[in-house]
Amino acid sequence: MTDRELNFAREILGQRSYREVPDPEVLQEAERLLSAWLAGETRMERPKLYDHYALLLLALTRQVRALEARVAALESARPE
Q: Looking at the whole model, is its pTM more than 0.90?
């Protein structure tokens, strides 16, 4: 474990805008960071961690909407 505290969003975004990072990458990196944090392998800026959940929630929301659209398309294409 490093003594350096990581900034959740900065670790995911790097120097990019949130619009430049694809949702699958956000989800993959968020899972990696949160798993390491929960396992005690990584330290995070805890006072700021909750602020950066917006990045993860946005990616999850977009993924849910995409899945809902796919389900609706499959349901409408299904013969009755």
A: no
